């Protein structure tokens, strides 16, 4: 069935971005248009969950991507609401003339994510993945300083290398499709899955590592994660929130779709092994670098690498592990978005991103202090947050595979939790430095509500997973095995 909703969410942000570009002198127009589209996007996502339609042959909603669309919608609307207060704060007033650019590229970035998620052709997914790099790079460069420029070029350079790896993987896959026993096979995901056993296994095995490295770069998997700390540290906090919570998910769906082809081809053990290896590498690096973090946004970036490693490990286990990986992805997106949004409040209060400059947060702003602690509790997978359930399921399944790997997994997580806890405690405790400079830095309600709602949803899912979401997760796991 042909959908009118898919072109709506792909084209509308382009129209709104052009409207903002031509009517930028109208104050706050960009804010209202972004809010409007975030509401439209949420409604469209709910529609596509219930009516999994397609548009042409290149875009299709299915049991897998509708989960990611829903997460994107929730995070997007939270970021749109939070941006109202963030860019109105006096700390951001010196950049107010550039705020319309932020909203333009935010809209285009969301459109590129929709393209990635809904693409039914590997080549189309690759095109939108490249577009997401360009649009998000402009968000990273928002402050235009020397550090922002360095972070932007590093982001573009590393992600371009990753995209190049993915392109090589697509070429190798194409060779396997031409030289397979079933004749020439199209590069649509459905065709690849149906004809997976006819793809030349040699070329498929050659293609998968390149595709995994390519998509894994944008996902933040080691060893291609180096762009995350700089990009996350230098971009505005609402931009960091949506990049950290949704871009990694969009890249993850590319990994999942290629992994499914491997499973259908009878090469699941091969792809599972590589996913497991990259997953543990992605735990090792944060375990080392979080302890040395001096910037709280960089600390959260390394935490993202950790959680992508957890997701990769859960995916490699399959079955309940895959269910847990998808659930963990949802929890991570909600909590990490709240964490980064709250980091924006802390920056507005202390005018610094250095951990040592932030002390006495509990005295300066109790609300932000408790949100900071709640985000820490959630991202470190303590109950009652949903991440506790997902990590517990992954540990249980991993224990059935290997006791040694389970011990390594738990030791690395413990080291990461210690590193984050040490920094969080130092930031909220003690007496504030230069306390007199924080007294008039009051934040409006829109600076708190999005984080409260996101964290509340993560707690709700930890206590009770609604039947519709449970069905979506089970259908996604089933879809991966079909």
**Order of strands across the widest beta sheet?**
1-2
Distance between the termini: 21 Å
Q: Number of DSSP strands?
A: 2
Helix percentage: over 70%
Radius of gyration: 21 Å
Strand content: under 5%
Oligomer: single chain
Alpha-beta classification: mainly alpha
H and E string: HHEEHHHHHHHHHHHHHHHHH
Q: Give the low-pLDDT segments.
A: none
What general outline do the C-alpha atoms trace?
globular
The description of the largest β-sheet is: 2 strands, antiparallel
Write down the overall mean pLDDT: 89
Figure out the total of helices: 19
Domains, number: 1
Overview features:
mainly alpha, globular, two-stranded antiparallel sheet
Question: Can you walk through the features of this model?
Answer:
With 482 residues, the chain is an all-alpha fold. The protein has one domain (5-481). 75% of the residues lie in helices and 1% in strands. It contains 19 helices and two strands. The protein has helices spanning 5-22, 29-50, 65-86, 99-118, 122-140, 146-179, 189-194, 201-219, 227-234, 237-264, 268-289, 296-317, 320-350, 361-364, 366-379, 386-401, 403-428, 449-463, 467-481, and strands spanning 54-55, 59-60. A two-stranded antiparallel sheet has the order 1-2. Helix 9 (227-234) crosses helix 12 (296-317) and helix 12 runs antiparallel to helix 13 (320-350).
């Amino acid at each position: 069935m042909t959908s009118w909703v898919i072109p709506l969410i792909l084209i509308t942000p382009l129209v709104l971005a052009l409207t903002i570009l031509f009517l930028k002198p109208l104050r706050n127009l960009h804010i209202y248009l972004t809010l409007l589209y975030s509401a439209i996007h949420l409604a469209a996502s709910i529609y596509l969950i219930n009516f999994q339609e397609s548009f042409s042959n290149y875009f299709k909603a299915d049991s897998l991507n509708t989960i990611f669309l829903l997460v994107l919608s929730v995070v997007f609307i939270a970021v749109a609401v939070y941006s109202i207060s963030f860019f109105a704060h006096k700390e951001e007033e010196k950049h107010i003339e550039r705020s319309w650019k932020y909203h333009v590229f935010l809209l285009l970035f969301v459109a590129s994510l929709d393209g990635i998620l809904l693409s039914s052709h590997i080549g189309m997914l690759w095109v939108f993945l490249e577009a997401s790099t360009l649009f998000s790079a402009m968000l990273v460069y928002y402050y235009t300083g020397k550090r922002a420029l360095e972070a932007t070029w590093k982001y573009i350079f590393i992600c371009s290398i990753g995209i190049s790896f993915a392109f090589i993987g697509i070429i190798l896959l194409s060779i396997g499709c031409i030289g397979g026993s079933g004749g020439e096979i199209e590069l649509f995901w459905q065709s690849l899955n149906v004809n997976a056993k006819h793809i030349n296994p040699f070329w498929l095995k050659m293609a998968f590592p390149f595709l995994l490295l390519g998509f894994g770069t944008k996902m933040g998997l080691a060893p291609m994660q180096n762009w995350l700390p700089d990009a996350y540290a230098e971009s505005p906090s609402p931009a960091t929130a949506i990049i950290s919570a949704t871009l990694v998910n969009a890249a993850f769906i590319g990994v999942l779709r290629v992994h499914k082809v491997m499973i259908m081809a009878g090469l699941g053990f091969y792809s599972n092994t590589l996913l497991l290896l990259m997953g543990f590498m992605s735990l090792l690096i944060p375990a080392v670098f979080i302890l040395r973090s001096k910037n709280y946004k960089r600390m959260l970036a390394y935490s993202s690498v950790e959680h992508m490693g957890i997701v990769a490990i859960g995916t490699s286990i399959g079955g309940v592990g895959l269910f847990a990986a998808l659930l963990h992805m949802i929890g991570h997106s909600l909590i990490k978005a709240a964490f980064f949004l709250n980091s924006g409040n802390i920056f507005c209060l202390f005018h610094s991103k250095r951990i040592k400059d932030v002390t006495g947060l509990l005295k300066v702003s109790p609300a932000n202090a408790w949100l900071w602690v709640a985000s820490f509790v959630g991202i470190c997978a303590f109950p009652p947050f949903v991440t506790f359930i997902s990590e517990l399921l992954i540990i249980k399944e991993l224990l059935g595979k290997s006791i040694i790997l389970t011990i390594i997994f738990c030791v690395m997580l413990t080291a990461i939790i210690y590193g984050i806890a040490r920094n969080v405690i130092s930031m909220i405790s003690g007496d504030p430095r230069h306390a007199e400079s924080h007294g008039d830095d009051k934040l409006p309600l829109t600076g708190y509500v999005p984080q409260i709602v996101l964290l509340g949803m993560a707690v709700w899912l930890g206590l009770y997973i609604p039947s519709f979401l449970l069905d979506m997760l089970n259908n996604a796991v089933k879809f991966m095995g079909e």
